[in-house]
Request: fold
Amino acid sequence: MYTKILNVQIIVSLLKQHGIKHLVLSAGTRHVPLAHSVENDDFFKCYSVVDERSAAYFAIGLSKELNEPVAIACTSSTATCNYVPGIAEAYFQHIPLLVLTGDRDPHRLGQLEDQMIDQVDMYRNFCKKCVNLPVVKSDDDIWYCQRLVNEAMLELTRHGSGPVQINFPINQTIEEIADASAPELPAYNRIERIELQSESAKWEELSSELKEASKILVVTGSGRRPDDKTVRALETFTKRYNAVIATEYLSNIDCEGAVNTYMIAEAISATVLREIKPDIVIFFGGNFVSRLKILLRNIKDTCVSWNINDDGIVVDPFQNLNKVIECSPFSFFDRMAELNPDGENNGVLYDELMAIDNAVKDEKIPEFTQWQESLTAFSAMKLLSERIPEHSLLHLSILNSTRIMQMFPLAKDVDVYSNIGTDGIDGSMSTFFGQSFVTDRHCFLVIGDLSFFYDMNSIGIRHINKNVRILLINNSGGAEFYFSMGPQWLPNIDMHISAAHHKKAKDWVLSNGFRYISASDIDEYRKGLEEFMSDDEEGPVVFEIFTDKLKDVNMLKDFRKHIHYETSGRATAYSVARKVENIPGMKAIADSRLGKSMKDKIKKVMR
Reply:
């Protein structure tokens, strides 16, 4: 029988799954739910040591002799303080000691609550990692709690052993604390770490899982353009497994088996992605701006995800992580390809994604012509995207610049960057100047007015080449806040939230030796673009355009609505068509029962 308190359930479940069976328990109340749960489970071997000072050292002895992690658990307040000498000893002897500290309601800290002190990070000088669990009340709390417990347990033996702390607060009544009536322990999600030096059997297990998967989606985050050997490893991997590489411009990956899914994610709903149904999602790289992240979270119950990174840290953007692979992307994909030399890709996932992509690009986007009517951020970036030469460098400042530019085709081998590690407004232009100074390529920056004026001192940097071209979209404030809220929700939004202004960059730009161009309507912009793109300029150029932020936002919203509705139907039709064709005798029945509109969609997609 087990406790009904969820954060403790998660600890106990993951103790079992990580193979930690020896626990040294001291007397007290706050950890009663844990003690009840482990003492009633034959998997665990429990030891009673009342004095926490002795308990920590006793556990060190157990761990030394058993050569495995050992847990200690105590109640709150000074009981936790008494662990300090033993934890310090474990730290310097590299003993994997799991320190489980019960705690009280975190809202009562500093409010004269009995037996309550600040236990969070109290061992930070002597622990490899300290985590503080939430009081679990929602599904998000469960995901967060699982992740923290996994992170702590994985850290026990990562790159050398040592102690870690898991602090678990409880705000239940004494009756609830004492209740151990749950008949079963839920199998909460265990995260496993595989390292490059892990035994061969572990890597073969990974390959076996991939072979059994019918659809594998490799999601690539932002990063520099990969070297040739990594590209070859990616291509070989997709040929030998049923995999597709999902990219966006910030991934800087263009290879066989890759699909730029930015527009696909804009067009489809989670329902459509659930129909497509990838089995395993493998992620590597930095942050990314595509809606694919949100869509994958919405179908997290239908698949699992793996994360590849050199640090081996737990990164779970889709909230269903079960494996962290600590190595470079090249090492992973190359090794997986070697373990499946005769594998083949059936192409189903690639075909499904490309059917949606083609429906958007070939049919829906050409129909959206209203962008030509006025000068907006959307129309400015669309026209610029058509003119950026091959092999250029393109830096996008945060939010709308990164969103909108990814909606348009770019020439071959344009490297695309953005400071989306933090998504901060500061530093986009400074970063761009650093990049552009050490290359002879054409270099373009698309930046909004708030970001530009925030970083305007960088215009005065001495190290700026003539290859610099900056498109400054000045809509007199933060359009992003109009996108998410707007005047209809916040009547005074321009005062402080969107920081409305009437500033222009002209005088500052000219005083620092830049060429300055401006435009206020679509015709002026087209004319100015010719000058902006000219190679005859002898110095850096700023092209400032003046738009209306409400029009900018509405144009983007209209475009999203335009591509979304029909495309979802096409994706569903494609999925239905594939299923129908693969079931003997069903095609004729389906033809007779499908409505005319659905059959027309299937014909369009399947042709």
Summary: The chain has a mean pLDDT of 90.
